[in-house]
Amino acid sequence: MKRLLSILSLFTLLSVNAQWKVNYDKEDLFIQEDEKRLSWGYFIGLNQFNFKIEPKYDYGEGKRNTEFAPAIDEKGKFLVTSEPRIGFTAGLMGKLRINDYFDVWLQPGIQLTERILHFENLEYDSRVSDNEANATRKIKSSYVDVPIFIQLHGDRWFNTRPYIQAGVGYAYNIESQEKSEEDNSGGTFRMIANNFNWQAEAGISIYFRRFKLTPSIKGIFFLNDELVPDKDDSPSVWANSMSSLKTRAVVFSLKFE
After folding, report:
1. Contact 89/46 with Cβ under 8 angstroms?
2. Which long-range contacts (CB under 8 A, 24 or more apart) does 98-102 make?
3. pTM, two decimal places
4. Beta strand pairing status for 194-207 and 80-97?
5. Higher pLDDT, 225 or 120
6. pLDDT (tens digit, 9 = 90+) per residue, 126-185?
């Protein structure tokens, strides 16, 4: 997250700096694209999704209660961790031009990703064998993501144009397993299918004679809890050891217009 904030700060500085630069009579390329009221494009890229996990705990009378805290050891360490993996992203873009500095963007796409949850707390329930099948859960997700953005961009500078944008989105997880009758006792980790998020992005558009290429980096932050609890009679070392599970992601994209 610190890397993302650093990169966003760099893009912001470049955007502000571009306001005070001139093109030194260099020819502006593909200028007609910026003047269109409506335009479209597509993007492809890589993503890294991870979970923000909140443990379930209850310290009654100052003592650790293992019934409610099966994922916290005696030293207070949370024993459930998330391992991110690199995934793939692709989608379409539609732009509505407001004026020379503001645009509205709709960017529907799909985010294919995988995360691995590691459970080091199996010893707290005698019903669960301490083996690889119980200690990990591979969470594959396919989010159909539909965000809408307000974009602020600077003036051209040597056929480049920096921007920042922010917005909100809806994401449907095709592989959520939300309605599955099986829970973690049968090896199925269930998540909410319908999700909402906010997103922030920065990038620099590079103009060529026939197209515009835009490298960008984006942060995605889910607003809702995605966790579906296990059944009451299931061991509490998996989903029932957490109070909430929220997605955080970084996406690098190349946009073509």
Report:
1. yes
2. 101/152, 101/153, 101/154, 102/150, 102/151, 102/152
3. 0.84
4. unpaired
5. 225
6. 788 888 889 999 999 999 999 999 999 988 888 999 999 999 999 999 999 999 999 999
